[in-house]
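Retro notes, item 3 of 5
We never archived the inputs for the pyridoxal-5'-phosphate complex last cycle. Fixing that now. Sequence and ligand:
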Amino acid sequence: MSTTTIIEQEDTYTSGVYGKRLLAIVRGQGAILWDAEGREYIDCAAGHGVANIGHGRSEIAAALAAQAQRLITCPEIVYNDVRARLLERLVQVTPEGLSHFFLCNSGTEAVEGALKFARLATGRTGIVATLRGFHGRTMGALSATWEKHYREPFAPLIPDVSHIRYNDLTAAEAAITEHTAAVIIELVQAEGGVHIGQQAYVQGLAALCHERGALLIIDEVQTGFGRTGTLFACEQYGVQPDILCLAKSIAGGVPMGAIGLGARVMESGHISKGSHGTTFGGNPLACAAALATLDIFEQEDLPARAAALGAHALKRLQALQSPVIREVRGLGLLLGIELKKRVQPYLEALIERGVLALPAGPNVLRLLPPLVITEAQLDRALDIVAEVLGATPNPERETQSVAETHEESSSPTAEVALLQRMLTIPSLSTHEGALAHFMVEQARQMGLHAYVDEVGNFVASTHAEITDQQPVVLLGHMDTVPGNIPVRLEDGILYGRGAVDAKGPLAAFVCATARVARQGGHSRPVVVVGAVEEEAATSRGARGVIKRYQPSACIIGEPSGSQAVTIGYKGRLLLDGCVTQQSSHSAGPLQRSNEIAAAFWGRVRRHADEWNQEHAGKSSFAALLPALLTINSEQDGLAERTSFTISYRLPPNLDIANLRTQLQRWALEDDVHLTFSGEEVAYQTTRAIPLARAFISAIRATGEQPTFKYKTGTSDMNVVGPHWGQNMVAYGPGDSSLDHTPQEHIRVAEYTHAIDVLECVLNTI
Ligand SMILES: *Cc1c(COP(=O)(O)O)cnc(C)c1O
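Structure as it came back at the time:
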């Protein structure tokens, strides 16, 4: 489903309470998300802090699958093995003093239950919450939430709830009385703007509660499970909550909440049977996921990772000099950048550049990446944040600024390095994924907009959005034929599989497009496509873009030599034939299957010779050229069978339907069973088209003499040519006679010459 279809469908049927970004996320792995168009995003939202262990975890999938086959549902009217294990485990991993747990299904439910338990245990009604606190959206939890526009439409909420200033002990002192059942706080106010609780405040609050007989509820729905650098933030404050609220990341993404209960609750004597409950609470499926999640936290020491990466990120962000940043705050990987402006436009700009982040209130940008994010991904996200906030980076930082990177990537050595690195990434047909993602990363660093589309093509362009303008499309391909050739640069020659066929032309396309993008002012968008499966009969990549563009001009990325332009490709037709005969004695009257097959091939040859005498003259491009690719006979004592494959190279003026009918007629006469495949019509344009003329003057401008070529093979030109019109040529550096050979190599001088020619062409058309 395309993004637009998904958005339309959701918008038609959803309640409408969510303000959504115009993105349809369909897949995730680690800290990377992909949208329905295959575009990649660095996830700095982690599903609001749910995906701490990262997306696409096979351990969670396996735990869920195994448990689902055993038992999914089991309300707490009976006991269950998985639940028993999780309850014990939660008591073990949470701060001391929490001896029992109530299991539920979400954060708001954990808070809801906490408030009920507090009232039950103390026999009091008052709840003290804080300004900017967030605790959920159901009526009870909402009463403790501060944000006015979440609350006001639903008033009256539960009575006896007051909100006091956060980090203000004097205010707490005045608010906590003998009617107070509980004080509820977050240790870092996450939704409310990433405000960090002070040690003295939290400890003072705990003491005050104790003194006045009120319970301390700590809401670690967001700060829990490693987010702030310890498994629970409580550990950094040295306080023992009477009630601890957990949810979000507890079960690796599966909905679940939990309420930890301390001695003052359990020993109150008021937690009686039937006083609270929930149908789904403690279901074996969620419990199994939670156990697998806790294993991951232990094995990967994610809290320590959050602490280290968080400190690194905080340092980088605090060093940014930006006119829009007011303050940077954070604990672990819960990071907030307070802006002097509204945050919304910046969030959109981040999405545009492939980073998904969150707000925290109207003017705080919140970063909440999965704790498994790699340092490189985090740095990349921070670079983009800096870019979007218009920050000049700290001079002390060694990493280059984005602007410098752009400068770098345009140098001739960087352009050669790009191709060299591409050659080291294998990309056989249908296995182009790694190269595609590498290309996206590179293109973005070179200042282009880039993504992987739904069929797996790499797409990069000068413009973020290709709307109704007719773009110039540069269609290369990523896939190569098999055969590893060690990558090396020797005497100005770069060796490697794909140097000529695939990667040389594609790299030249990207470099030339990045050059024109950097010069700016190119009003007609240029799109580079690195197609998948060009070498396969499917041509899946090229077929996937036929309908997407209506190009004003198209350059196909195939080696022609940097001074030459290809203006025609022959067509192709593959046919598989099969003849079956009853086994007979060699002297018998029956003709053998291999003789029949050979006779059929004889007809094909003679027909082609006659056709060529009549139509083609001496031109091999205009000739009909059949080749017998394979022929095999076998017999099993009862029947003997011969199968063969014939490949035709077709000239432009040949009627393929006629040819097929002719072949079928002979097949019928000879009792041969035929199947056709790989049909491509020849494509031919002329040197008079604007694009060819642009190449002539560009090649002349570099002091060389342009020539034109026709190719006897096929390329993606055959696929898109019939749909995209005549203003199309194929061009690319490299000697095409090296295609598919063990000697495949390209001269660096020719490669850079081709980039110069392409740059010049893009600037003239
Ligand atoms: C998200 C959140 C909640 C509410 O959790 P839901 O699962 O969305 O109901 C409560 N408290 C805090 C601190 C939260 O961040």
